[in-house]
Write a structure and sequence with these properties.
alpha/beta; 35% helix; single chain; globular
Length: 175
């Protein structure tokens, strides 16, 4: 278990759906988000979905972070949907509701949801870091977690220096 060493401003529960292409770092970004929540004193779950074909098609991850214990890990209506590739869009567009906050790479042409932030996440993070770049922007915009907590988790991960560089390049950009 991870020791709590950071605060969180999160109220209640947030379901975050991250969608991209296979090999695009979606699963590792989701794991970083869940671990960041845990060292911030929150409960977290993570569930990944991707086809058995390696390196082709979509990759998606569902992360739930909550102030309270998480008894149901299903994510019927995500609060936040992050889409960093066309493969990801094709897989999750049907799950966007009028209450969804969207974080889209600028290459994604999609209208929907409640609020949209568009940025060049692929340029900031590269193909493998686009999902982490979008998560970083969500953290900055929402204030739910601290950037320091994210940096601490990233620094301990494999390729931590690359992850920290992506986080540093991922400044908040309003659409």
């Amino acid at each position: 278990s991870l020791a709590t060493s950071f605060e969180s401003a999160l109220e209640g529960r947030k379901g975050i759906l991250i969608a991209g292409s296979a090999g695009g770092g979606v699963q590792s970004a989701a794991k970083l988000l869940a671990e960041t929540a845990m060292i911030s004193g929150l409960a977290a779950t993570m569930k990944g979905e991707y086809p058995i074909t390696v390196g082709t098609g979509f990759s998606l991850a569902e992360v739930i972070i909550s102030r309270d214990e998480i008894n149901y890990t299903g994510l019927e209506e995500p609060d936040i949907v992050i889409i960093v590739s066309a493969d990801g869009l094709a897989k999750v567009s049907s799950r966007v509701t009028k209450n969804t906050d969207l974080y889209l790479d600028k290459s994604i042409d999609y209208k929907g949801g409640r609020h949209t932030v568009k940025s060049d996440f692929v340029s900031a993070g590269g193909k493998k870091g686009a999902a982490l770049s979008a998560i970083t922007t969500w953290i900055q915009n929402s204030g739910a977690l601290s950037m320091e907590a994210l940096a601490k988790v990233a620094s301990k991960a494999k390729h931590g220096d690359k992850l920290l560089a992506t986080i540093a390049r991922s400044g908040s950009v309003e659409a």
